[in-house]
Task: inverse folding
DNA sequence: AGGAATTTGTGCGTATGTATC
DNA sequence: AGATACATACGCACAAATTCC
């Protein structure tokens, strides 16, 4: 870290074309260190006093950077204990799942029905790649408290795995992505429409063909803002509904 | 503000049974001042140095309190200018509206059909009040780009107005609440289900009775976490869909 | 247009409280 | 109980943005 109190031409500022405050530069530096694997998930960082000396900044400045990173979810700070690299949320497996039983709640659960590699020009358009690109297509049946509630098909980039079978896929695909493919979903966009039972969904949901269904089309992005998943979920409106909270 | 650096028995701590940090006490104090109308919306607060002296805290401590209040959306701080009491967002009229045309987008627009005062025990339960409480019930027709897309009925507390007619209600009820009733909606929860055209909704949406419809049940809270609105929206799935983004 | 005054933002350093180990 | 580590609090100097003349 450069020691000019109000930097005007250090490395980062020069590259980014901006005059970023020193505490932001420090936080950027720490982000790079963490992503480069300098500290592992869950590992404790050096204590503030040490790190401040090492980076040649005042403790207060370092603290501001650490606080910023904590607010962004990359670090966890515990008084009396230390500052830790935060693990991607383990319990967040179903954090982005928005279906609930009509009476409220329910524990999500999924069963993989089929996995195959294929091309799909419509899906390729969503991902913004060439229509000859191969995707993994995964079909699943979803439950809340053992009640079948939805049929689902999803696509991810074929490049993530050479082989992929139903057996090796986790309950939570999001966790599988993180632990086996090295990325994780940070935000999604859902469109909820109305559709009708096809023979496929009727079979899975045990409904008569042609009955009305809720239909969720989801695009999922990684924290780098790249599209990493596209999915379609047909849910049975007799047993569940979609819940959305916003501020 | 008490001047013990690490307060152990000031007014607030005594009342709350906790030892709150001084900067939190300061922010609590400022919240009370603002709510009491000591400073109006948009008005500038005294400069940091003055306010710090007045409250008998260090400037840094005051700054931490002000930063906290800014993060909570009560204040706005502008370098070189001052610290201002934030006005509730004007442009947020349709911020919480989540229906879009199937092809995407569309400008929201609403027409009030009927307004009347009535009791409704089901609605009273949502508000958490006695079932004999009177509510205003407002029926509206919603459009996107002049296309009729939804029929809506909503309830608000009867106590907000003695009289209320369709003519005096704004396009945006949320704005009307803010400007005439003195509260505003800060967060909502939607449940999206499937329903079918009733004679009423069929008439408004120009559909045949019994056709499937999307159904949104919404509970809206003010920033004080009190339920202030309950609404039901039936939307035509042939022309629009519900969109939800989350991180 | 431009410079001075004002006001918040950044940065430094230190002392002490409080939670954890 | 003692050592360690983060949290709070104080105060000062200067930068940057805004305002005003």
Result:
């Amino acid at each position: 870290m450069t020691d000019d109190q109000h930097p005007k031409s250090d490395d980062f500022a020069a590259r980014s074309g901006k005059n970023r405050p020193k505490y932001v530069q420090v936080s950027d530096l720490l982000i790079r260190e963490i992503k480069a694997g300098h500290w592992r998930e869950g590992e404790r960082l050096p204590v503030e006093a040490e790190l401040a000396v090492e980076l040649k900044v005042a403790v207060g400045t370092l603290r501001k950077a650490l606080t910023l990173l904590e607010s962004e979810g990359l670090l966890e700070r515990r008084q009396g204990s230390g500052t830790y690299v935060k693990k991607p949320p383990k319990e967040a497996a179903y954090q982005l799942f928005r279906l609930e039983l009509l009476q409220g709640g329910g524990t999500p659960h999924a069963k993989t029905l089929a996995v195959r590699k294929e091309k799909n020009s419509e899906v390729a358009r969503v991902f913004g790649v060439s229509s000859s690109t191969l995707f993994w297509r995964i079909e699943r049946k979803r439950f809340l408290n053992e009640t079948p509630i939805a049929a689902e098909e999803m696509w991810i980039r074929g490049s993530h795995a050479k082989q992929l079978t139903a057996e090796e896929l986790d309950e939570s695909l999001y966790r599988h992505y993180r632990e086996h493919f090295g990325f994780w979903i940070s935000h999604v966009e859902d469109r909820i429409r109305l559709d009708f039972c096809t023979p496929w969904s009727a079979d899975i949901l045990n409904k008569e063909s042609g009955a009305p269904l809720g239909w969720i089309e989801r695009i999922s992005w990684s924290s780098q803002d790249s599209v990493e998943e596209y999915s379609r979920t047909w849910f049975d409106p007799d047993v569940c509904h979609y819940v959305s909270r916003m501020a």
Summary: Chain B touches chain A through 24 residues (CB under 8 Å). Chain B has seven helices and ten strands. The two ends of chain B are 39 Å apart (CA to CA). Residues 5-6, 21-23, 57-61, 64, 78-82 of chain B lie near DNA strand D (CB under 10 Å from a C1').
